[in-house]
Design brief:
Layout: H1 3-18, H2 25-41, H3 43-54, H4 58-84, E1 87-89, E2 99-106, E3 109-113, H5 121-132, E4 136-140, H6 146-159, E5 165-168, H7 172-180, E6 187-191, H8 194-205, E7 211-214, E8 220-223, H9 229-241, E9 253-257, H10 261-276, H11 292-299, E10 306-309, E11 313-314, E12 319-320, E13 323-326, E14 343-349, H12 352-359, E15 367-371, H13 375-384, E16 389-392, E17 406-407, E18 413-414, E19 416-417, H14 420-425, E20 427-434, H15 452-458
Parallel strand pairs: 3-4, 3-6, 4-5, 6-7, 8-9, 8-15, 9-14, 13-14, 15-16
Antiparallel strand pairs: 1-2, 2-20, 7-18, 10-13, 11-12, 17-19
Helix pairs in contact: 2-4, 3-4, 3-6, 4-5, 9-10
């Protein structure tokens, strides 16, 4: 598609937004209901496409994609009227007898760029917030999950007019600059790698466009000596190997107390077998790697340490075992890069300081997990490890709660969304003060000489 055609289509979104049609409550509610109906109507097609792209079962697809999205829509429908109300705030003495409040106005025309690992949920969850906030939206789907993208395209184009929600395909490295070079978006929302996030940030900065970057990083998981080992093994394995490890908030590596390391490793091995059988390549519950590029990157990590479970792979099926590794150097690529696959390095620690020093080699993770029975240790870890989000005695499930904001910090991202936070993200908080004319004291106006004593009483 030519840049001129892009510009024409984008200008149609601007024109549509400028009519004001997207702003009333009833319109926003109707669009959210239409999106929900479309997802339910295309549920089987979406699940089939997710299986084609990532070998996700319908159950996994419902929990992490379609059902997750329905939950977000339901949360928005439930809260939208309240979210849209103006927020009354106090007025200081110097502005008496004015009244003050905050209203949330739409940003305008926004761009949402989605990734391939959760191609439905991570593209359309921001859409829920953008609709709820009253914007017009451009959706850029990932080119690496073509089956799901094709179903989403049909679903979006038959649900919304293209001058309200425009669905865009193509290579991101070409399409995104083609749009942003010709058109000033009012907000850009990107989910993906830190490297590409930096490029998006630079492009947006040229026109002072606000951005939300949902990136990744190395999310650490600490298993203290007083942890419930069986529960910890189940919850770590569940989220680490869901979607074959291709999840931004999956535990990226485990630091387990040396007193329980052997017991925890054994529990983890038994859990992997219980979850995915002795041959995960044929198991209903286990997925595949998205493409050969990611497959090649991942198998390169297998030489970075000692494999103690798994390690087998099949290029023809884009399959890699759920794999556990130990004896991994902090300087090894598998401990420098975000793994984003079914490989889990495990290291032992003997003290809080030792584990903390390891975590600090990759600061500001997207998520941080601690398993411990001690409230004192819980507080100690939460206070000393900056992260986008955290779970105590759990992994990754914090993102399924629409009442919690989700986002990163530092290299793991900028901004937060989910639930009301998505509405806030795509809204501008406009400060409003209304001042009556019946009271207009002369002390507010020049000449000011001799009024300093009075100003000091009023402005403080």
């Amino acid at each position: 598609m030519s840049e001129a055609l892009f510009l024409d289509q984008l200008q149609l979104l601007r024109n549509y937004y400028n009519t004001g049609v997207t702003r009333p409550y009833e319109f926003r509610k109707q669009q959210l209901e239409a999106l929900k109906s479309a997802i339910l109507l295309h549920e089987k097609e979406l699940h089939d496409a997710l299986y084609t792209d990532l070998k996700k079962s319908p159950e996994e697809s419902w929990v992490t994609e379609t059902g997750f999205l329905i939950s977000e829509i339901n949360s928005a429908l439930k809260g939208l009227r309240h979210w849209m109300r103006r927020e009354k705030v106090k007025t200081n003495l110097v502005n008496f007898p004015s009244s003050s409040y905050v209203i949330r106005e739409p940003m305008g025309v926004v761009l949402v760029v989605g990734p391939w690992n959760y191609p439905l949920q991570l593209l359309l969850t921001p859409l829920v917030g953008a609709i709820a906030a009253g914007n017009s939206i451009v959706l850029k789907a990932s080119e690496f999950s073509p089956a799901t993208t094709a179903v989403m395209k049909k679903m979006i184009q038959t649900t919304f007019p293209a001058d309200y929600v425009l669905f865009v395909e193509g290579e991101g490295a070409r399409v995104i600059p083609a749009m942003t070079n010709q058109f000033r978006f009012d907000h850009i929302f990107y989910t993906g790698s830190t490297a590409v996030g930096k490029i998006i940030y630079k492009m947006a900065a040229e026109n002072l466009v606000p951005v939300t970057l949902e990136l990744g990083g190395k999310s650490p998981c600490v298993i203290e000596e007083d942890a419930n080992i069986k529960v910890a093994a189940r919850r770590v394995a569940m989220t680490k190997f869901s979607n074959a490890g291709q999840m931004c908030v999956a535990p990226d590596y485990v630091l387990v107390h040396k007193k329980i390391k052997a017991e925890f490793v054994q529990a983890l091995k038994e859990t992997i077998t219980a979850f995915f059988s002795t041959d995960p390549s044929t198991d209903y519950n286990y997925g595949k790697i998205i493409d050969e590029k990611q497959f090649n990157r991942l198998i390169g990590y297998l030489s970075n340490g000692t494999i103690i479970h798994g390690g087998h792979y099949d290029r023809s099926k884009l399959y890699i075992d759920p794999t556990l590794m130990e004896n991994v150097s902090l300087a090894a690529p598998v401990m420098k890069d975000e793994i984003f696959g079914p490989i889990l390095p495990l290291s032992s620690f003997g003290s809080f300081e030792e584990a903390k020093n390891i975590i600090e080699t990759n600061p500001n993770p997207l998520a941080f997990y601690v398993y411990t029975s001690s409230k004192k240790k819980q507080r100690q870890w939460l206070l000393n490890v900056p992260a986008g989000g955290a779970c105590i005695n759990n992994s990754s499930w914090h993102l399924t709660n629409p009442y919690l904001p989700f986002g990163g910090r530092g290299n793991s991202g900028i901004g937060e969304y989910h639930g009301k936070s998505s509405f806030e993200l795509f809204s501008n908080r406009k400060a409003v003060m209304i001042t009556p004319t019946w009271f207009d004291p002369s002390l507010k106006y020049p000449p000011f000489k001799g009024k300093l004593w009075l100003f000091k009483k009023v402005v403080r």
